[in-house]
Input
Amino acid sequence: MILMNDFRREAAPVKEAMAEAMARVAASGWYILGPEVEGFESEWAAYVEAKHCIGVANGMDALEIGLRALGIGPGDEVVTTGMTAFATVLAVMRTGAEPVFADIDPETAILDPRSVERCLSTRTKAVLVVHIYGQAAPLDVFDELCRTRGIHLVEDCAQAHGAKFQGRPVGSWGSFAAWSFYPTKNLGCMGDGGAITTNSAALADSARMLRNYGQSKRYEHPVAGLNSRLDELQAAILRARLRHLPEWTEARRAIARTLQATISNPRVRVLRASSDRGAHVHHLFVLTCDERTAFKIHLEKCGVESLIHYPIPGHQQIPGAGFRSDPHGLPNTGIHAANCLSIPVHPHLHPQELSSITQAVNGF
Ligand SMILES: *Cc1c(COP(=O)(O)O)cnc(C)c1O
Output
């Protein structure tokens, strides 16, 4: 079976660097919020060209903590997309605010700014864009929209490590950005991990407090925070892996180019890449097909694993029901949820596997 991800295939130097990182932490005798976390925070801030980075326990907490640091909570609304990991929606709900669902652009599956406009109300405090599948959302348009309305732009970067828009990395455009280092992400650790990046020193201070019980100094808790700390082991592993992110991204791009050039089947469409100005990092390679169930079974018979991102959009999940959405409805989200299918694009695919994938897709 050609798998969606296969970490066993990572090169020996990567595995050795991770083992060395783990040994270093074990020898240090310091396991939570220490020099490895600080080291990773400054390396990741530099990578995404943001002033501050705050390591947290996972991507969902990064969103919740960032939103809470902006003062968003009960009575507020955050406009976002249902075509995302449900964690995006849940994080908004965890703050006490209400998610409001806008539709997506049918060609890219990215949040549609015109639909976002229709969702705004006097209670809207932020627009939460998701750089879905590794492609940057049109940040110039969203930046302008949010500035005009005096609301926050927030980026969910969990699928977009290293993606750029107009030559500038995602993760520094909004009031803050949330990152996940879940193992399958383009930069992943060996467990759960996450981070917030921001250019605001005040937001960074507030997020540092919130991740650690709302503690300002030892035993003083001016706010009711979370326990959402990044541990030293994960941070050390992330530092070792970060050195390889550029080569993994290039490998994903080369694979995506080959798939785009060789897939040719009138029953299957390749999702259009966002905009030529945005550097896509191909977290996922997404096709759409009106006969998805049959297509998925066919791929499996050909030995190609596939997954659906996402079959049930946020507004159709049980806890996500009952919130406002675009008064024109969410037709594009619904169609995409019914037709989309992700095929392997991980950086360790072998060339012969790549041609097997193309043959399987074209043979449907
Ligand atoms: C993975 C993911 C998250 C959640 O990250 P966790 O680390 O699993 O909490 C949020 N948003 C998107 C778009 C994701 O892909």
The first helix runs from residue 12 to 28. The radius of gyration is 20 Å.
